[in-house]
Amino acid sequence: MTASPDDLFAFLDKHGIAHSTRWHEATFTVEEGRDLKATMPGGHTKNLFMKDKDGAIVLISAHADSELKLNQLHKLIGTRRLSFASGELMEELLGVTPGSVTAFALMNDKDGKVRFIVDAALMAFETVNFHPLVNTGTTAISRQDFRKFVEATGHDLTEVDFAALLQPES
After folding, report:
1. What is the count of structural domains for the chain?
2. Which domain holds residue 160?
3. pLDDT in tens, 49-97
4. 52-57, long-range: CB within 8 Å, 24+ apart, which pairs?
5. Which residues of the chain have pLDDT under 50?
6. Domain presence at residue 9
7. What is the pLDDT of residue 81?
8. What mean pLDDT is reported for the chain?
9. Residue 98 belongs to a domain
10. Considering the domain boundaries, does residue 116 fall inside one?
């Protein structure tokens, strides 16, 4: 069964993870949430749900301002070229709809089918902010507690320096 924001908060509480949520109008893009983010400290995210031709499924949480070279990303993470996965697959595996994808949805991936990649630029912040399974809120937790959350879902957290993809090849 798909978790609700209340289920998420109960999961965080159960694991001793402090959290704070601000409710707001729905935001579907980084740009739409820019004013809100300016009033909330910490790293804000953009989240991408992707897959490759071999069926590898990847959830990427990047810093909102990071530039991602998606056509090069597979080289860093050891997959074939990635493309955006369908909304249906997102709902099936993560229990969220397009526009609400979030690392917190890893709690819905009970079978561990989704590989999780996080941007090193995001992990440079003491506080990280994600949608609480819906795009009408933003939930802040500490970086350390975020690592604890990912581990509690049974997933590995793979940290990748996306900025390395922006460097010219020598």
Report:
1. 1
2. 5-34+41-165
3. 999 999 999 999 999 989 888 888 888 888 999 999 999 999 999 999 9
4. 52/79, 52/80, 52/81, 52/82, 52/83, 53/80, 53/81, 54/79, 54/80, 56/80, 56/115, 57/85, 57/89, 57/93, 57/113, 57/114, 57/115
5. 170
6. yes
7. 93
8. 91
9. yes
10. yes
